[in-house]
Amino acid sequence: MENIEEPSPLRITPTVRALSSALRGKREDVPGVRVFPEPEKLWFKESSAKNLRNRDFLSPTTMLNTLYADGQVPPAVMSRVLSLRGSGVLPVAGGEVMGEGLRVRVDRPAAFRTVLAGGAKEYLKPSSQRQGCVVINCPALHPKPTTPSPDMLSLGQLRTVLLADHMGALLRRQGFVVSYCPILPEDSDIISFLRALGIDWPTGPADRTSEEREEKIQEALKSSPYREKETERGRRASGGGGRKAEEGEDGDLLRINLKRVFQEEGLLGYDPSLGTCTVHRDSVSHLAQLDQSTAECTVAMVTALHVTSCQDEFRQQQIAMLWRASGATHTQRHLVCGPVKTPGSQLTAAQYLQLRRGQMKEASEMKYGDQVEGQTWEDIIKVMTSATVRFELLSTVHTSPVTLDVQREGGISTKGPRGGVFVMYNCARLHTLFDSYQRGVEKGLYPEIPEGSQLDFSALKEEGEWLLLFNYLIPFAELLDQSGQALDCEGGGARVNIKTEQICKFLVSLSKDFSSYYNRVHVLGEPLPHLFNQMFCRLYLLRALRELYHSALDSLNLPPIRQL
Fold first, then answer.
1. Where is region (Disordered) located (predicted)?
2. Fewer CB near the terminus (10 Å): N or C of the chain?
């Protein structure tokens, strides 16, 4: 018996590549071809509701004029475009050359059927799995010399902790083995604070020490070829922070020439003013924690990702080069966060969380009144507060500053298209919809949802339905892929720039478009048999959207709210 291959999930990137290949062809096949622009510039995917009314992909007139001497698409090329086939390629229904360029329309009923009839599971996870171990190091949580408390944590440092948590969830879903550094003491105030935000940071016994590993690091630095000898004094020193400097065997302070480390080992992107660093006790403790975390990795390829604030970047580069000088050869990348500004106020992380929680509880009481009591509502307010904080601090490009409104007289609206509350509210609306449908089934109003193969998906004609599939369900897997791809990129220097804001922006945009559609379309119609096909097609679409919400929220370590 032959093995029948499962069809590949539909993807945007393979479709654009296939369209580009069809348009470019081979030089000898297409008379009048002048030049060959880069493939990714030949086409772009439409996303606005206005443009999606008449096209899904467009090759602009400027591109056609670049490709062909007269700007006219030869019939043979047009035929290739319209008969497009391939793994992961969206089916083409038609196309024509208009004033704006060559526009192509997807066979939408076929796309709906392909994505939704099978349950859409392949669209809710990364398109490929990666290998390797990533140790996510958060300098803000390291002892200095004691474990930081929530009242010591600045908002900029809180941003790095949330980003570290988000990156861990994203990378783990892509197949990476992920561990976190440092290990924090069990039952400490900082662990209670992080758990209130939904962050499950690893813990160890409060009396856990790493003296043996610290001694090992100390000896490695003493014998490092980058150690500065007495005769090399006079070079510029750059202080290594901390409270007590380590001494060499001759009683002198232990100094490492960090500039030589990155120059001689060909490491790009490090600050040329690093100079010579005096090794301090805090630095050795930090290195021991890193060494322990990487030693516990069970795979050969290990990357240390330091998630730090711009204020602490220089200090973290020192730590990275000290670790290298001690003999560590792991790849190290730095994810640097911009500052968090609070005009007119100065709040610690603990005060900020307390403020947002109080505002969330007040907003809930104003909307739901006396219902807001008991453990269920405590859990809801906790999740909604966590969502608010995460979206406020993670929705901005990580290198850019974040400005927060922390005026106490302000509040958190449970309405309006912005932030975590709006996202969680719309996720809850989907759960409410399916609860209503299930009650209708129990009352005998509606039959059970049939198999997707029994439905005619051409019933999905409302423009919002295609927008939800084409802009969100289909592209989501490729969105999840991006963080791993950026981490794998070689030659980019010490800093790594990852589009960490994209999941938050994706969810806010999805919520706006879903809310618009849901307010406009009555999904659960009259219980009349001739209306059931369209209702079931819509339920298939919205069930896939519900799972999309869950998947995206999971990458933020946020559980869905099922009822509001």
1. 204-249
2. N
